[in-house]
Amino acid sequence: xxxxxxxxxxxxxxxxxxxxxxxxxxxxxxxxxxxxxxxxxxxxxxxxxxxxxxxxxxxxxxxxxxxxxxxxxxxxxxxxxxxxxxxxxxxxxxxxxxxxxxxxxxxxxxxxxxxxxxxxxxxxxxxxxxxxxxxxxxxxxxxxxxxxxxxxxxxxxxxxxxxxxxxxxxxxxxxxxxxxxxxxxxxxxxxxxxxxxxxxxxxxxxxxxxxxxxxxxxxxxxxxxxxxxxxxxxxxxxxxxxxxxxxxxxxxxxxxxxxxxxxxxxxxxxxxxxxxxxxx
Length: 280
Prior knowledge:
By secondary structure, the chain is α/β, with parallel strands linked by helices. Helix content is 40%, strand content 21%.
């Protein structure tokens, strides 16, 4: 019998800050549509790196899994009993599946990016420019490799400190060149621009990216649209926001934690979009 058949299962999203996470809305919508809302619960827990080991040590057998956001994705690898090849390659886990007293670390961010791009009709971009060098950029490089892209440019504030992120792409067979973020214009046009920069940090690149004719994947989901996304949309380019990525990584998490493959994508999408509209 799968884990979904056990009564009283618990799951949560951990991170800091965590109050505005959409994960509870998405996972609870899935439970409701799957008939699990009477026996499964999902909550948000404020947790920093120093607290994660203690939190994990206090979990009982009713716990099925954890979603992890910043700053926990790297430390989770050290606290897991097993790690998927993907999470090891990316260097971060956003998921811990708890089963039979063991912790299995996985990464569903890469799946989320691939699914979000595929949903928008973006497959195997011949050239890609990734803005930012953090954990999400690492997942984006792995996703590009999965899509079949052969090479990417990684634009970061300090290229000499981006070796770790560039190495992620290279581990998955992607040739990566790190360049200064203020030289973005020199590396356009690209078929796809991926912005992993927070908030308004990509505003300065709106005009050149839009003029280049590139498709855009912007990981920001609120407030939406960003100036970058709005500019590309006005220019007639394809724009993918951060919400579809968040949705599809959560779909994969629900499947991993419940052991079921009948995860209701559209029910989760509707719940997430309604919550974003309410907050907006």
